[in-house]
Structure formats: C-alpha cells, structure tokens
Design brief:
Length: 290
C-alpha cells in the first residue's frame, strides 16, 4: 500500500451506490488489519460485518448516523470492544486502519456516530455480546468521483505542491505549522524549522487524519525528543469522540513516521495536561517517542 497516496485520497463518502462489496473481499481486508501490538490492553475488539445494509439502516435510523442523519449504505461494520479505560483510543486506531485499507482497494467508507451508551445499538440489531458497541462505519462505493487537481506524488515536498481536491465533502485543512508547537505551548514553528527537523512532510500527512465533524482538534507539542498529542475538548462533543480522534491521529503518526523511516511508539498519557504545560481545555492522549 502506498500510504501517502491513500491518505491523500481518503475521503468520507455519504452518498453510496446500491452495490455491495463482495463479502469475501470485505472479510479478507478486515482480517488483514489485525493489530500486532495494542496501544490499550484487553480491548478485544471484534468487527461485525452487517451485510444487509437496507435492514441495518432502517433499524438504526434515529439512533446512529452522521450529524444527526443516518447514512444509507449497502453494508456497515460495527465494532465491539471491552469497556476498559481508553478503549476508544484503540478503537479509533484500529477502525481507521481498516478504512485506509479499504480506501487502498477503492472501497469507500464513512464514520458514523453512535450513542455513548451503545447498548441500544446492540439491542435493535439483536446482538448478544458483553462487549460495548464502540464504533460504526458505512461501507460501499461512492456515487460521484472526486477530482484531484495538481496531485501530489509520493516523494514530493508538500511546500512545493499546489494540491486542490474537488469533492462534494471537501473541507479546508490546517497547515502543518498550525497544528504543531515547538518546545513550548503557543510557539508555532516556521515551515523552515519543521523542515530542519525533518518533520515538514510528516505533519503534512498527519493533518489529513479525519476527525469528528472535521473539527481538526489535534495539536502536537514537540518537546524533549517526544511528540505530545493534545486534543481540544469542546462543549457538546462527547469525550469518547475525543479519544476516537486521538486514536486516528496516532495511527496516522505511526504510519507516516514508519514510511519516512522514523522509529518510535505511542505511550498513553496518564497525567493532567497542566503537567505538560498544556492548557486544561486540552486532553493529552499520549506521546510518541523512542
């Protein structure tokens, strides 16, 4: 998989064709994404492919969806997880890994919101499992194609590119320098400073990570040879979504760091943001380092 290409092309789709992904292909892709190492222990995440999209959509109408509306799709995947501390971080990481793998095979997806108490989802779907309904995605093929103008090719430097994406759900992304602080909170590096650290292209791709309502809540503090991940908390946004967004950002960091041959791993944070010099309205999810 050309991960940079996949990240550039990854878009949420909310208008699907009435055409299913062959079940054996879907199962094969999901099976190929099993995690070798866990960020959070004992989550025991289980993906359930819901192959009857029409029935699932009707049952979950008014319960799940995107921005208050259920997205109709030919198939869905529901993810169950043990209700252990920080399991949403692991869920976000794992589910987005599957979504990127599906994108690499030209299969489209969309994150869907489910209630904080996922028991209602299990109840209406008739699922008997002690694990929590942790995430739901729609799967299929988009009705309309997206158009990329002046595409960025693998190996290109983002600062020299004039990339434009025309799509029915395209949104503006923050610049790499806008999501990074260097040495202390509040000090944004210049593009040249990021380049001198060898991290300009890295953060170009990390910023492409999807997030709840595309609020792009992640900020990264580079300090003491570590990269701290902080998520902006907002009134009206469930903290479980904060943790899902954190897990997705951790995945993008892992994948692109590995692609640029940088080594490291994530450690989940167990301290208050103020212990890192980060404002208290930010949630510190963890740090990346050797």
């Amino acid at each position: 998989m050309d991960i940079r290409k996949v990240m550039l092309e990854r878009k949420s789709v909310r208008d699907f064709k009435d055409k299913k992904v062959p079940l054996e292909i879907l199962k094969e892709i999901v099976d190929s994404c099993k995690l070798k190492e866990e960020l959070v222990c004992s989550t025991n995440i289980k993906p359930l492919i819901l192959d009857d999209g029409e029935r699932t959509s009707k049952l979950l109408n008014g319960i799940a969806g995107y921005n208050g509306l259920m997205i109709e799709a030919p198939q869905y995947i529901l993810f169950l997880s043990n209700d252990v501390e920080n399991h949403q971080i692991q869920t976000g990481y794992y589910v987005e890994k599957i979504m990127l793998a599906l994108e690499s095979k030209s299969i489209d997806t969309c994150w869907l919101n489910i209630p904080e108490d996922g028991s209602l989802v299990k109840q209406v779907l008739g699922i008997q499992d002690s694990r929590e309904a942790a995430a739901l995605i729609a799967v299929g093929y988009k009705k309309r194609d997206k158009k990329v103008i002046n595409p960025l090719h693998t190996g290109d430097n983002y600062s020299q590119a004039d990339l434009k994406v025309v799509d029915d759900n395209t949104s503006t992304r923050l610049a790499p320098e806008e999501i990074v602080y260097l040495n202390k909170w509040g000090h944004h590096p210049t593009s040249e400073e990021l380049k001198s650290l060898g991290l300009d292209n890295v953060f170009f791709y990390i910023r492409l990570a999807p997030s709840t309502l595309n609020r792009q809540p992640w900020r990264f503090l580079i300090k003491d040879k570590k990269i701290y991940l902080a998520i902006k908390t907002e009134e009206g946004i469930n903290h479980e979504h904060d943790m899902l967004d954190a897990g997705i950002a951790m995945l993008y960091t892992d994948l692109i760091m590995n692609d640029y041959n940088y080594h490291g791993k994530w450690t989940i944070a167990n301290e208050s943001s103020k212990n890192y010099g980060i404002p208290e309205d930010y949630y510190v999810a963890g740090y990346f380092g050797n």
